[in-house]
Amino acid sequence: MKTVLMILDGLGDRPHDVLGGKTPLEAAFTPNLDKLCEHAETGIMIPYKQGLPLGTEVAHFLLFGYPIDEFPGRGIINALTRGFELKDKAAYLSTSWAYVEEEDGISIKERWVSDLSDEEVVGLMTVLPDFLDGIEFEWKQSVDVHGVLKLEGDKVSPELSDSDPFYDNSYVMKVEAFETNSENANYTANTINKYLFEVYERLKKHPINLRRIAEGKNPANFLLTKWAGKKPNLPPFKEKHGLNSAIVANGLLMRGIATLLGMDFIRYKGFENGVEIALNSDYEFIHLHTKDTDEAAHTKNPLNKVKVFERIDGEIKALVDSALRGDILLIVTGDHSTPSSGTLIHSGEPVPIMFIGKNVRIDDVKNFGERSCAKGSIRMFGSDLIQMILNLTDRAQFYNFRSGSKALNHIPKEINKLR
Ligand SMILES: [Zn+2]
Questions:
Q1: How far is CA 84 from the centre of its chain?
Q2: pLDDT for position 168
Q3: pLDDT at 6
Q4: Is residue 357 left, alpha or beta, with left meaning phi > 0 and alpha meaning psi from -120 to 50?
Q5: pLDDT tens per residue, range 279-332
Q6: Ligand 1 mean position to 273 CA, how many Å?
Q7: What is the CA(354)–ligand 1 centre distance, in A?
Q8: Which helix (H) or strand (E) segment is 98 a member of?
């Protein structure tokens, strides 16, 4: 049986006064989601730990059944979206072009120089140093002001803290060896700090920046760095879980995750088209993803998220019909919570989840929402999901069976015959 995992990114939320004390999901008119819910086993899912906010990439890494200590860092996922061929003795960092001024440290005036054109980025990047203290540097643009910086050399370590403080009007942070005292990590951190000063020296007098200043615009005179990671050594999704799989989405980040885990990636044109692809393709596991819910929450207007839920609800009719006919196992949930008000970027509440399919134990919950699903029968972690899917689709292997040289969570499709 085919499984469709529909993720509404940043699904969970908090109660808002403007919604009469409801969350956006509770306030939205979602007859299709509620119809599914009537035929579902429902509950709540803790993405990793109670109260701990996660980013989309690490939340998906857990949902796809990979251990968190093997997460290679978002810098790696960004590098994969840019087509970097990952090297062993290298670290990959995410970067943004920023405007800074020297005053008792390096003060950040604009964290992402928002009106920087692609042509200007191409012009500025030519002066970035490509070699310093035995380390090779290479920078590639990912999207707009964001990019990936590769450091390569015998002494390169990815165990590095961020220079990007993640808040506006703050200061560039010193890069330090992160959670280690290793010589290579300290060496790499010191070299990046030197590199960042050199970048600043070169960029502040660059003709493009002098022109921008003359035009009254902010110069892009610094490269903020974060999320260092190294080449991972992960078994592909198919090998790990025995399932042919695809991610059906529209974002670059999802493409990076698909590449990281050896899953196919299909880009949809609108969510309704995504539903169509999910229903009409032959994969055993399809992850259908929308970022719109998360982005609506980031506007910090709960009404925007309500509207997105209502729009999506109208686009999933075919999926609802298929699930209610029992053709597929459908799971609807989110990867994390994104609060539509307050200062947090993401928050650490659990998310509602529902399973619809022929083997599920339907419970009494009739409306898909955070508090209604909390009365459902399931309490689970994000890392439980794949095992539950294998079980509900009759693929789970009896614990401790040794069918081959590796421990498996699924019944293998082929065995090694004794001949
Ligand atoms: Zn988000």
A1: 18
A2: 65
A3: 98
A4: left
A5: 999 999 999 999 999 999 999 999 999 999 999 999 999 999 999 999 999 999
A6: 23
A7: 22
A8: strand 90-102
The residues near 15 (Cβ < 8 Å, ≥ 6 apart) are: 21, 22, 23
| Alpha carbon of 337 to ligand 1 centroid (Å) | 8
Backbone angles phi, psi at 379, to 5 degrees: -125, 120
- Give residue 301 CA to ligand 1 midpoint distance, Å: 14
pTM (2 d.p.): 0.88
Angle at 43 between CA 314 and CA 33, to 5 degrees: 10
The DSSP annotation for 231-282 comes to ------HHHHH---EEEEES-HHHHHHHHHTT-EEEE-SSHHHHHHHHHHS-
* Span from the CA of 374 to the centroid of ligand 1 (angstroms): 23
Compute the distance from residue 346 Cα to the ligand 1 centre, in Å: 6
307 in Cβ contact with 301 (< 8 Å)? no
Residues lining ion ligand 1 (Cβ < 5 A) are 294
φ, ψ (nearest 5 deg) of residue 398: -50, 135
- Taken in order of first residue, the domains within the chain and their CATH numbers are 2-66+236-392 (3.40.720.10), 78-229 (no CATH)
Residue 178 pLDDT: 97
Q: List, for the chain, all residue ranges whose pLDDT scores fall below the cut of 70.
A: 167-169
Q: What is 343-374 written as a DSSP string?
A: S-SSB---EEEEEESTT----S--S-SHHHHT
Q: Which letter does DSSP use for residue 187 in this model?
A: H
Phi and psi based region of residue 380 (left: phi greater than 0; alpha: psi -120 to 50; beta: remaining): beta
Per-residue pLDDT at 169? 67
Contact 317, 31 (CB under 8 A): no
Pairwise CA distance, residues 313 & 70, whole Å: 35
* Residue 55 CA to ligand 1 centre (angstroms): 7
Q: From the CA of 157, how far away is ligand 1's center (Å)?
A: 28
What phi and psi, each to the nearest 5 degrees, are found at residue 137? -120, 140
Helix or strand (DSSP H, E) at 311: helix 302-315
Measure 367 CA to ligand 1 centroid, in angstroms: 25
Instruction: Find tokens 């002494």 and name the residue.
Output: 155
169 is written with which tokens?
A: 């009007």
